[in-house]
Specification:
With 105 residues, this protein is mainly β. It has one helix and nine strands; from the N terminus they run αβββββββββ. The strands form four sheets. The protein has a three-stranded mixed sheet with strand order 7-9-8, with no helix packed on it. Strands 1-2 form a two-stranded antiparallel ribbon. A hairpin with a 5-residue loop joins strand 8 and strand 9. The longest helix has 11 residues. The radius of gyration is 18 Å and the shape is elongated.
């Protein structure tokens, strides 16, 4: 009976192992800073610049859906990267979703 209860719990919830502790989360309640890996069926940590993300980062794309505080996206970039420092040739416009805009654009 205990095994059946554990299996039902595992199917309905996702477990994150962090610092040797297991934390359980419901599939519909994604923890901040994690994305769901459909292959391994676990939540994995987003790129360090992301507050939230939608999938695993690559070398050229952080895959951030939302940046951490004081990190910003570039307006002309197709990738979903977040930057802490203002890139050369860009100006931060805080009144418009906190995005770095190309100068003279």
């Amino acid at each position: 009976m205990k095994l059946k209860i554990w299996i039902e719990f595992y199917v309905k919830n996702i477990i994150i192992k962090k610092n040797n502790n297991l934390n359980c989360y419901n599939n519909n309640n994604k923890p901040i800073g994690y994305y769901f890996d459909n292959i391994e069926k676990i939540f994995k940590k987003c790129h360090k610049n992301c507050k939230n993300c939608f999938s695993a980062p690559t070398d050229s794309n952080n895959k951030c859906s939302e940046c951490k505080e004081n990190y910003y996206k570039k307006d002309d970039e197709l990738e979903d990267n977040c930057y802490l420092e203002q890139p050369d040739g860009y100006k931060l416009k805080k009144f418009n979703n906190n995005i770095f805009y190309l100068l003279n654009a």
